[in-house]
Amino acid sequence: MTIEWFSWLAEVGMQKHGRLMVSNHLDEDDIEHFNHDLLRSIGVDNAKDRLLILNQKNKHIQRRSSNKNHLSSRQLAAEAQSAIIRRVQTLQVDEVKLVNWIRKTWPLCNRQILIDRGYLSATAPKPGSVAVMANYDRTHIGNELLNSAKDILWAALYGTFESNVLIHRVERELLVITIPGRKAFVFNFFQAVTEVGALGTWRDPANRCHDEDESNMLLQVEYGESANEVVGDAIMVSIHVINLLEVNEVVLYARSSNIEQSTLLTELYFEKHQLAAAMLHKPGEK
Fold first, then answer.
1. What local confidence, expressed as pLDDT, does residue 69 receive?
2. Domain finish residue from 41, 63, 91
3. Is residue 38 in a domain?
4. pTM of the entire structure?
5. pLDDT higher than 80, residue 207
6. Shared-domain flag, residues 71 and 23
7. Model pLDDT, residue 6
8. 103, 151, 274 from 238: Cα distances, Å
9. Which residue among 107, 135, 183, 279 sits deepest, i.e. has the most Cβ atoms within 10 Å of its Cβ?
10. Whether residue 152 sits in one domain with residue 70
């Protein structure tokens, strides 16, 4: 790949060597091969200059690696969202299905039960482990249950008629999940989410799950609740399942609260104020 050598070298004040890079037909792919011998061979005689150029090489490689990781994370998130949306569209989720899913799933929200019934391996890491659970820590039916929980969570948070989710939403709620930053990628299928970094301050009196000085991530999502509040119930049960089967915290903190006003322009907002708009609309106006 071509590179503008004068600008690249100017970051460390070495633009005077730009002509050497050009005359030797070097391009961006050659940067990773830079060393003292190569730079000396093309005419960079001063050792201090070579050190500065090699320092710029290291920065360049780090930036490129960071960009690749960022793109990879975004691609993985997009793929996770697409897979869930495809599954949700075949489910035709409504409030009755949410109730039935909760009734079937809630009794499984216990680690020992998941192990006894063959959803989770007996050798799975203990709750509170640094890493999340891997696929091999769950059985086939365990992975199916995890996917089901993520599908229901997505449908409850984001589902609309367009995605074949038939829930009548009557008010806005705010979901906040507090999760260690290193595990936040588990919820990479979230859309329209606010991520806030914060150090934990909680010390558990039972000495089981301190998060003091933990580098946490707060995930905040607005969603529409139904009149019978089954959406919120489905959200909490699905998060509980996701924690037991993947996040693997002793306690995964999540709470919902009512929102009186919101700057988000949602379908619910327009539905709520449709009548008022019609009353203000004068006949003959467009």
1. 57
2. 91
3. yes
4. 0.65
5. no
6. yes
7. 85
8. 12, 9, 33
9. 183
10. no
| pLDDT greater than 50 at residue 34 | yes
Mean pLDDT of the chain, nearest integer: 84
Do residues 120 and 139 lie in contact, with contact meaning Cβ atoms separated by under 8 Å? Answer: yes
Residue (of 155, 119, 146, 143) closest to 234 by Cα position: 155
Q: Quote the domain boundaries for residue 192.
A: 92-275
How many structural domains is the chain composed of?
2
What span, in angstroms and rounded, lies between the C-alpha atoms of 188 and 169? 24
Is 203 among the domain residues? yes
Task: Please check whether residues 268 and 131 belong to one and the same domain.
Answer: yes
Q: Are residues 61 and 98 in the same domain?
A: no
- Tally the residues of the chain: 286
Whether the Cβ atoms of residue 249 and residue 127 lie closer than 8 Å to each other: yes
pLDDT of the residue at 64 = 77
- Rounded-to-integer distance, Cα 130 and Cα 142, Å: 21
